[in-house]
Amino acid sequence: MNIIELQDVHVTFHERHKTVEAVRGVSLKIEQGEIFGIVGFSGAGKSTLVRTINLLERPTQGRVLIDGKDITAATGDELRKLRRNIGFVFQSFNLIDNITVGANIAFALKAGGVDKAAWHDRTVELLKLVGLDSKIDSYPSSLSGGQKQRVAIARALANNPQILLCDEATSALDLETTEEILALLKRINAEIGITIVFITHQLDVAKQIFDHVAVMEDGQIVEQGETFDVFSAPKHPTTKSLVDRYLGIAIPPQLVPSLPAGTIVELRYRGDGALEPLISDVTRQYGVSINVLHGDVEYFGPKPIGTLIVLVDGPAETLAAALNTLKTHVYSYRELDRKQLAQPARGDGQQGEE
């Protein structure tokens, strides 16, 4: 069942004598209880799009449906009720510094119309959920970044929302703390069934928790689907660039001149397939040598995407056939140019392709 549906949503800003189309004709459906990701480079329109879901940004054109109901024109009490049902977690935490952690959560409970007699018990319950019940009387200034974001998540859940929006919620955190916050969100999603919409430019986030993902570029959704499918076989140039930046591996340029003769190839495989049997078979069948120069495997959920850079050499009459067999048994095959490999890697993390 779709809990969120966007239909041909546009958001246009007018700045002095300039018109900016931040979101252009976006349509997507998000199922109840899933973790849905929106990824893209800076300026793609991700934050503007996610803010249309709770009408912090009202669409210039198109419709926003929550639980099948068109809320695009909601105002007054209807809008306030809608926003109580949608929690929001910001990159910068947005805690009130001069009141305690408990008071920050009580503030959200008051805004949500919860009876004052229930504030304390609900605050303790929420802080236990995020592992910070001992910090109820602490002030935000005494907390680490990860603890502040845990409080922000607890506050966002104060009024039992069906939907939690996360706008770059881990971008200000270090790697270890990011993983802790992602594990917390995944646990909360599993325990209470809340739908999470998470925007990020970090594929590390995407691979760990997203069920489905949409890729944005220039205000549009250019690709969407199951996370593993989108990133293991990207079709749009933007998705390919994101994947290459994340999965791309490189040979240190200073080592290239000392490499023996042969063809340098980048191979990428997906899923349960492995390259070791393929390399052994090709070596034996065609009488070529295949040396692994570099390799890496990344897991998107339980499924791997592997990348190898290999050096293939052998008799001219069998080398072409060996390379063709490799090419037909992997989902991505690139022959790399030695001269370009000897230069520093480009900003997208790739090395030179012939």
UniProtKB/TrEMBL annotation:
Keywords: Amino-acid transport, ATP-binding, Cell membrane, Hydrolase, Membrane, Nucleotide-binding, Translocase, Transport. Coiled coil: none annotated. Residues 4-243 form the ABC transporter domain. GO terms for cellular component: plasma membrane. Belongs to the ABC transporter superfamily. PANTHER family: AMINO ACID IMPORT ATP-BINDING PROTEIN, METHIONINE IMPORT ATP-BINDING PROTEIN METN. This is ABC transporter, ATP-binding protein. It comes from Bifidobacterium boum. The lineage of its organism: Bacteria, Bacillati, Actinomycetota, Actinomycetes, Bifidobacteriales.
